[in-house]
Design brief:
The complex is a heterodimer of chains A (460) and B (478). Chain A is of the alpha+beta class and 460 residues long. Chain A folds into two domains: 217 residues, PmbA/TldD superfamily (PmbA/TldD fold, 2-Layer Sandwich); 224 residues, no CATH class. A six-stranded antiparallel sheet of chain A has the order 3-2-1-4-5-6. A five-stranded mixed barrel of chain A has the order 7-14-15-16-19. Chain A has a five-stranded mixed sheet with strand order 10-9-8-13-18, covered by helices on one side. Chain A is globular and about 70 Å long. Chain B has two domains: 232 residues, 2-Layer Sandwich (PmbA/TldD fold), CATH 3.30.2290.10; 234 residues, no CATH class. Chain B is 20% helix and 40% strand. Chain B is built from eleven helices and 24 strands. In chain B, the strands form five sheets. In chain B, strands 10, 11, 12, 15, 21, 22 and 23 form a seven-stranded mixed sheet that branches. A six-stranded antiparallel sheet of chain B has the order 4-3-2-6-7-8. Strand 2 of chain A pairs parallel with strand 4 of chain B, so a sheet runs across the interface. Chain B: Belongs to the peptidase U62 family. Chain B: InterPro entries: Metalloprtase-TldD/E_C, Metalloprtase-TldD/E_cen_dom, Metalloprtase-TldD/E_N, Peptidase_U62_metallo, TldD, TldD/PmbA_N, TldD/PmbA_sf.
């Protein structure tokens, strides 16, 4: 059954996942695999979209899939499928074992050395819900959000609509060492995007909220109004002169800036010689005002998890302490290859073996308000949107398109568009001279506003 | 050749008769304009080499049926991953709730499946037909060739990925179309090091073509040479200047400019809703008279090509801009209907689990009359950009960016030195009005593009001659 309007997950899906994994591990053993692991994900999603006060789309889906990794000694291969019928699974596992015979012997490949219980009771990470909202309730909330945006200001002339969605999933992981655990995860999202016009200039912006419970995304009016105010304030944007200026990254763009660090600090990048942070453990990699923590136990946060993609218990850690790099992040493979221990940072997509990734990342907030930061900077740019992909964690080179606001003497003067910011990640992180107090946990990467002293801006 | 007309019948007990009988219980309200079922069965295989070892190999099987109901501006969508007539009818029933009004008792009437009227890609000599050791051997060869090319190469990462997709589109007008769509992609990425200076170089290629041509010894050698050459060039690169300057774009992949600057802004959904910077501008001048730009899904073997789009409409060559004048938008069936025009065969979806949207296929600027060498020598002071990474656009404000991965600083028509990668930013609706020269050397990219929109990825192509664009903003560091 696939289309389940407004129902919860199929109650048996945790059991179905466990049963499928047991079957697969046994099939792998009989096909000649020396060890194996498997990851099962089953999910229900429902998304409604409204535009200009009318329902525009309704999407419902229930899907499930399983990713399998097999080892033949120190050779490995992986397979994935959405068909859980025993005959198909048996032949797919046999195919995986046959493929593994042809890959290279790799002395570092393999499951973790031992299994340990999950770090935390999963029920503490993702609260149980007494009631799942109906499709009509999702529609109602999306309509209220868009209505608040459209009536906010006469310059709001068009809409890309509002969307409300829910997603519930079961994740089960098991390996041939005997690990077999699962957990349930839920999330809701509400977003709105509108268009403002002035003369022949047209600008679009959006706002959104996500949360583990329906109640967490209840303030439709506030989301709509924020989407509209963000859009209207963009009107009248112009360019600024090319030069080097202080730049404040707002919490949304600061998340993106800090996100590049999560890529550079990966143990996979380290053994591949593919990070500018190589050889920098124990040395300053950011300004001394910066402390970065990873917390996999934040209740309801999108990256929270009781065990990692290889079944190892997750744990809190400090990545950067007052500017000094404390550790890289490792999965079992990158750790073995470099003579280290896994930091339980394996992440897994169905189609591939584990890679390195973070759970939730948090930059410790400071005490300054945005006004304080602007006053401290004197004049400069407050960045609110970044576009493009001009960032290399291999070289640390950074160059992206930006949108923001020019400020002088602590006050915003006008919006700014069609400019770029450029530098190197190393310089940028070291030049973060202050942090805002405006930290909010909205995503898996979370940061307050960050003031960077002296970034190159290309404009007129 | 396997009988693809019978592919889903054999596999999924969805013979026309049993499907017909299941669907006869679903009757569509008269307010429904369009409905379809999209059957998909895709096998993907991938191999990768790093650290001199092919240590990853994998296969993924993906299958399902997407059901879609369109009524005016509304779309209802659901999918199932089980190929049973009952599940399919239930998916359709769920999608149907979007449409208002009483059922008209108008059940779907199905014709026999038909193949598209053309063959843009082969169905024999595909990567799947080759033994696993041969495919692994290709990656081992790449690793060896790159390391032979230069002792500065400290890492080689290469991958070989291919997919074999079979689709069947069942439309509410009774038409049933089947197609089998292959796609192969190879990528070589190297890191070269000199002292503490580490730089990357890469080369990717592929398409909907037979396997022999893609992995010929000459092709592998050329790819490795190019990837290593680019990394070595970047070792010599100096900081890129910043500010507004004139830029010459080399032929091929720099055509990503067209994709970002104008392509997305001409997609039918944004224009129907009036949210694109190009909305309502058909017939107006949006580019220099030197520019004629087409979207062409009919180029044989290209990554962005399709016999039919994901709504069963044959793909075509659509003129977007003719001698600088905006001529047309890219349409799927829903947006075409709402705008009173016809689908241009640009209705595409990532998979059965994703709804259809208007998307590009291969977006190309036709060649001009300038000698490419003269285009470069005309540059007084600026940047010559020959290769790029990705790009992005805000279709409402029109602002777009794309990132150079190999570029040179030029003065008085002479290349002085390579510069580090930097982002270029411009304004879509006017960037093409600043095109001063268009070369004769139009070339298509090597088959590397993937376009993302609303969370969906689809393969695309671009093509560009050498062109000069005045007054682009270059995001360098000095």
């Amino acid at each position: 059954m696939n289309v389940v309007p407004s129902q919860n997950l199929p109650p048996k899906s945790l059991e179905e996942g466990e049963e499928a994994i047991r079957f697969i591990l046994e099939a792998a053993r009989s096909a000649g695999a020396t060890s194996a692991d498997a990851s099962y994900v089953s999910g229900v999603e429902e998304t409604v979209g409204v535009r200009k006060g009318e329902i525009e789309k309704v999407q419902a889906a229930q899907s499930r899939g399983i990713g399998i990794r097999v080892f033949a000694g120190t050779r490995q291969s992986s397979v994935a499928t959405r068909d859980l019928s025993p005959d198909h699974l048996r032949s797919l596992v046999a195919r995986a074992v046959a493929m593994a015979q042809h890959t290279a012997e790799d002395p570092y490949a393999g499951l973790p050395d031992r299994i340990l219980p999950p770090a935390i009771d999963p029920a503490k990470l993702f609260p149980e819900e007494s009631r799942i909202p109906s499709r009509d309730e999702l529609v109602e909330r999306a309509l209220a959000t868009e209505k608040a945006a459209l009536s906010f200001d006469p310059r709001i002339t068009n809409s890309e609509g509002a969307e409300c969605s829910r997603s519930h999933s079961h994740i089960v992981f098991g390996n041939s060492l005997g690990f077999l655990h699962g957990y349930r995860k839920g999330s809701y999202a509400l977003s709105c995007s509108v268009i403002a016009t002035s003369g022949d200039q047209m600008e679009r912006d959006y706002w959104y909220v996500t949360g583990p419970l329906w109640e967490k995304i209840s303030d439709a009016e506030a989301i709509g109004q924020k989407a509209a105010s963000r859009t209207v304030r963009r009107l009248g944007a112009r360019r600024i002169k090319t030069g080097t200026y202080p730049v404040i990254f707002d919490p949304e763009t600061a998340r993106s800036l800090v996100g590049h660090f999560a890529g550079a600090v990966s143990g996979s990048a380290l053994y591949r010689n593919a990070t500018y942070l190589k050889g920098r453990e124990g040395t300053p990699v950011m300004n001394a005002c910066m402390t970065l923590r990873e917390d996999p136990f934040l209740p309801g946060a999108p990256g929270s998890r009781p065990f990692d993609g290889e079944g190892l218990p997750t744990r809190k850690k400090t990545l950067v302490d007052e500017g000094v790099l404390q550790t890289f992040l490792f999965d079992t493979y990158s750790a073995r290859k470099l003579g280290r221990q896994s930091t339980a940072n394996a992440v897994r997509s169905l189609g591939d073996g584990p890679g390195v990734g973070i759970s939730n990342l948090i930059v410790d907030p400071g005490t300054s308000t945005l006004d304080d930061l602007m006053k401290k900077a004197g004049k400069g740019l407050l960045v609110t949107e970044l576009i493009g992909f001009g960032v290399s964690t291999v070289t640390g080179d950074y160059s992206r398109g930006a949108f923001g606001y020019w400020f002088e003497d602590g006050a915003i003067l006008h919006p700014v568009s069609e400019i770029t910011l450029a530098g190197t990640l190393d310089e940028i992180y070291k030049n973060i001279v202050d942090r805002g107090s405006d930290l909010e946990i909205r995503s898996s990467i979370n940061s307050p506003s960050l003031l960077v002293d002296g970034l190159r801006i290309a404009g007129d | 050749m396997p009988d693809i007309v019978r592919f889903f019948e054999d596999r999924v007990e969805s013979s026309t008769e049993s499907l017909q009988s299941a669907l006869s219980h679903v009757s569509l309200p008269s307010t429904v304009d369009d409905a379809d079922l999209y059957f998909e069965h895709t096998v993907r295989e991938h191999y990768s080499v790093e650290d001199g070892m092919v240590k990853k190999a994998g296969q993924e099987v993906s299958q399902g049926v997407g059901a879609r109901i369109v009524s005016g501006e509304r779309t209802g969508f659901a999918f199932t991953e089980e190929f049973s007539p009952r599940q399919i009818a239930e998916a359709l029933e769920s999608a149907r709730r979007i449409a208002q009004g009483p059922a008209s008792g108008r059940p779907l009437a199905l014709s026999r499946p038909g193949r598209p009227g053309r063959d843009l890609y082969p169905t024999t000599d595909l990567a799947f037909d080759r033994p696993v050791p041969e495919k692994i051997g290709i990656l081992e060869t790449i690793d060896r060739l790159c390391r032979q090319e230069s002792s500065k190469v400290v890492q080689v990462m290469a991958s070989l990925a291919f997919e074999d997709k079979t689709i069947q589109i069942v439309r509410s007008d009774g038409q049933v179309v089947v197609d089998r769509i292959p796609l192969t992609r190879l990528n070589v990425s190297v890191i070269a090091q000199e002292g503490s200076n580490r730089q990357t170089g890469s080369y990717g290629w592929g398409g909907r073509t037979d396997f022999s041509g893609i992995v010929s010894p000459e092709r592998l050698a050329q790819a490795c040479r190019e990837a290593v050459r680019q990394a070595l060039v970047n070792l010599e690169a100096r900081p890129c200047p910043s500010g507004t300057m004139d830029v010459v774009l080399g032929p091929g992949w720099p055509g990503i400019l067209l994709h970002e600057a104008i392509g997305h802004g001409l997609e039918g959904d944004f224009n129907r809703k009036g949210t694109s910077a190009f909305s309502g501008r058909i017939g107006q001048r949006v580019a220099s008279p030197l520019c004629t730009i087409v979207d062409d899904g009919t180029l044989p073997g290209r990554r962005g090509s399709l016999n039919v789009d994901d709504e069963g409409t044959p793909t075509q060559r659509t003129v977007l801009i003719e001698n600088g004048i905006l001529r047309g938008y890219l349409q799927d069936r829903q947006n075409a209907r709402l705008m009173g025009t016809r689908s241009t065969g640009n209705g595409r979806r990532e998979s059965y689990a994703h709804p259809v949207m208007p998307r590009m296929t291969n977006t190309v600027m036709l060649p001009g009359e300038s000698d490419p060498a003269e285009v470069l020598s005309s540059l007084d002071r600026g940047i010559y950009a020959v290769n790029f990474g990705g790009g992005q656009v805000d279709i409402t404000s029109g602002k777009f960016v794309f990132s150079m991965s190999e570029a040179y600083y030029v003065e008085k028509g002479k290349i002085l030195h390579p510069v580090k990668g930097a982002t270029l930013i411009g304004n879509g609706p006017d960037v093409l009005t600043k095109v001063r020269m268009v070369g004769t050397d139009m070339s298509l990219d090597t088959g590397v593009g993937t376009c993302g929109k609303d969370g969906q990825s689809v393969p695309v192509g671009v093509g560009l001659p050498t062109i000069r664009v005045d007054g682009l903003t270059v995001g360098g560091t000095h």
